[in-house]
Amino acid sequence: MPKSSPCVFPWSSLWLASLITLVVQSVLSSSYSSSSSSYQRPAAGDKRPGFMERTLVLLDVNTRSPIRVLNDNFLSLQLDPSIIKDGWLDFLSSKRLVTLARGLSPAFLRFGGKRTDFLQFNNQKNLAKFRGPGPDYYLKNYEDDIVRSDIALDKQNGCKLANHPDIMLELQREKAATTQLVLLKEQLSNIYSNITITARSLDKLYNFADCAGLHLILGLNALHRNPDNSWNTSSTLSLLKYGAGKKYNISWELGNEPNAYRSMVGRAVNSTQLAQDYTKLRTLLQSVRYYHRAHLFGPNAGRPRKNAILLLDGFMKNAGSVVDAVTWQHYYMDGRVNKAEDFLKTRLLDTLTEQITKVTKVVNAHTPGKKVWLGGLGPAWAGGINNLSDTYAAGFLWVNTLGMAAVQGIDVVLRHSFFDYGYTHLVDQHFNPLPDYWFSLVFKRLVGPRVLGVRVAGLQRKPQPGRVIRDKLRIYAHCTSYYNHNYVRGSITIYIINLHRSRKKIKLAGTLRNKTVHQYLLQPYGTDGLKAKHVQLNGEKLLMVDNETFPELKPKTLRAGRTIAMPPMTIGFYVIKNINAYACRR
Hints:
Helix content is 34%, strand content 20%. By secondary structure, it is α/β, with parallel strands linked by helices. Strands 2, 13, 15, 16, 18, 19, 20, 21 and 23 form a nine-stranded antiparallel β-sheet that branches. Helix 4 (95-102) packs across helix 7 (199-212), helix 10 crosses helix 11 and helix 11 runs parallel beside helix 13 (351-366). The longest helix has 24 residues, at 166-189.
């Protein structure tokens, strides 16, 4: 367990003085009456009056300057290449799916995962020849429907969007369920088959990203090797030329978790070879005029254990200057976890801090100041946990990850996966948002890239402020998003995660005192509790109005000076209006 919270910062003398004054005044005013100077024990059944009883935590924020400034695309997304194999790629033109993705823009869209290193590009439009096996009615009627849909889309100008018939979606869900069993078998056996990405596939992928306001990052196959183990660039060059001809604005990365290649395919790629491969890719990009200034990210190493750290260290030594940002992955647990309460374990939540420290130490040793991205992040390994990773409970990990990563200077967090793959997705196969989607949407609407320091003090009869804050109450603060026109510049957004099984109260102090607050309290909807797959905002269930319309995210106004009451095991966002914070005005 870490000794200090990632969100607790040193006290200033001004803050400490104001805190002492506030506590003394409140205790004196509540403990003594005008008629007696002695303490009066409350009668049985009565509430004990006074500030100490009704307040657990005093909270203030440093409004003078941000401690971090992150990428505008801090919360970003990922799609797994398995959507080519199970057929969902053909449905990325869905108007509803594009709307949901657009709700999380601006963002990057990384197209990558374990199957990145089994992708082969083929420059042709023929769909049926490269489609996976399926029942007879897929090969006869279903394929014809896809082709007819593509023909209709080709006639559209600009964004190519479709409303797919329900029967067509139902057939696709049946096909995807069958294919997912094949993909799971590959994953368990660690033997993967190649996936062909055609020109048509790339067109559909780029159309989705472009229509949704996302910037596409395309993962390239690093296991396409020559006999001497050097990287074979033939497929990549063909892909680059096609993308340049279509003027597709794409950024690139090479490979996925290269530290795991030996266990996956029995062939290792060491850090020196990987650095040479990335240098070769940079040269290749510069040789294609349209991509000569394209961004390149990598090496997308796995969790920073011994092998991954050694590979990252060697890569940064030899090719640290080649990449525009350093990428790595983190997963919190394996697929054997089977309780919702496992997502609330504080030791589990705090593992990320240690992992970030390891990675940034290596990066700064070779290229100080280089941006670090957390890619491929999800709440559980192996595609998630059925009936858990897509529930409200997983939101504690997700929102805490965003807060921890922001405080520690991670420039971008890429969520695996936006749609389809496993159980960690944000949108299900009926195109309905899951709890983590709603958390992400509220985060995008309210939280900006400027991170602020938080000052917290615990007020208890037996004070244990360090333990309470670090373990069970997570508090983070940012400048409110500049894209939200409901709030003027200078507003502050605080988001709080209450892991306690009881209600906790937070009193705004210092610069936050007597300010009007807008509350966005997210709680599970229905009788399933932490296993709920629906979310309510301030008591109202969140549902899409139609394929193109989000529900109104209505805040609850808390009067100036009112204590924030956090229900047990909930997540809340609080916008401090009209505070005119200097750190947020610029």
